[in-house]
């Protein structure tokens, strides 16, 4: 499968990112980063997501070597993470910590993120972003972005910024839409693309699936018939995110599921009708259910909605 068959989105800095990435931060994917990463790459998923805290940046580079895919054909994201027990990275040590990421990977990743606003010591978030900007200017980083940032965190780093973050990587699915509304609006104003994780929370982690379950199953059946490819409710969630210009990061350590994700990644855009996309969003907005609290529930009010 050629990389050209997978749709990409254009980031603020003019670079392109494939719409679906395979992450090695969760589940079996994290403990089998080389083997599963190799399967992902060989299947045609040429977009890998890692982070310092996953302890497999080295394995991410090894997976690319093992798959025999040229490095320049793979889009790689990594992140500057807080130290164990959520200890922030002192500003004076951040440059060296970024370099350690690059050394473990064996190359400069295409995208490098501040893993969450608490990676910086209190009051140092803007200075940490300024360091990312300087590293970009020096050619030590390429695209730069953030993760788990609330509107107030984005406001801090955007004030006088030389570069805007190209993405904010957050838990994103229909059951967090109401909570995220102010954040998504802020990002849209600035052209910051949402990169999703935890996208399968409604189908895999919500105790019953909630009101979306029959809707996703109905749409999955329709799209399976149209495409001749068997898709389930989880696949519909990934297509729903893509239909909104969201870059999806998902994970699997299961070879068959990884190959299924690669097939999904290569399907043409526009598989869901605008009415289906809107129906999923509208029903999703009636429930609040988050799996990863990270820091998005601190000083960022939760919606007054039923939460199962
Ligand atoms: N920036 C951050 O703070 C942050 C936080 C969390 C995650 N991430 C990134 O995003 C990636 C994906 O996160 P996520 O795991 O939350 O994504 P997700 O797409 O919501 O879930 C993927 C998980 O679902 C399981 N799965 C998929 N289909 C399944 C099925 N039909 N039945 C049962 N299990 C199924 C996979 O397990 P199997 O291995 O069994 O297939 C995998 O562990 C991570 O690896 C990481 O790279 C970033």
Blueprint of the fold:
Blueprint: E1 8-10, E2 16-18, E3 20-23, H1 27-31, H2 33-43, E4 47-49, H3 57-67, E5 75-80, H4 91-105, E6 111-114, H5 125-137, E7 143-147, H6 151-158, E8 167-171, H7 177-190, E9 193-197, H8 201-204, H9 212-227, H10 233-243, E10 247-250, H11 255-266, H12 274-284
Parallel strand pairs: 3-4, 3-10, 4-5, 5-6, 6-7, 7-8, 8-9, 9-10
Antiparallel strand pairs: 1-2
The structure holds NADP nicotinamide-adenine-dinucleotide phosphate.
Give me some keywords for this one.
308 residues; alpha/beta; TIM Barrel; eight-stranded parallel barrel; two-stranded antiparallel sheet; 12 helices; 10 strands; binds NADP nicotinamide-adenine-dinucleotide phosphate
Structure description:
With about 300 residues, this protein is α/β, with parallel strands linked by helices. It has a single domain (about 5-285), classed as NADP-dependent oxidoreductase domain (TIM Barrel). It has 12 helices and 10 strands. It has helices spanning about 25-30, 35-45, 55-65, 90-105, 125-135, 150-160, 175-190, 200-205, 210-225, 235-245, 255-265, 275-285, and strands at about 10, 15-20, 20-25, 45-50, 75-80, 110-115, 145, 165-170, 195, 245-250. The strands form 2 sheets. The chain has an 8-stranded parallel beta barrel, surrounded by 6 helices. It has a two-stranded antiparallel ribbon with strand order 1-2. Helix 4 (about 90-105) links the parallel strand 5 (about 75-80) and strand 6. Helix 5 (about 125-135) crosses helix 6 (about 150-160). The chain is globular, with a radius of gyration of 19 Å. The relative contact order is 0.14. The mean pLDDT is about 95. The structure holds NADP nicotinamide-adenine-dinucleotide phosphate. NADP nicotinamide-adenine-dinucleotide phosphate (NAP) binds next to helix 1, helix 8 and strand 10.
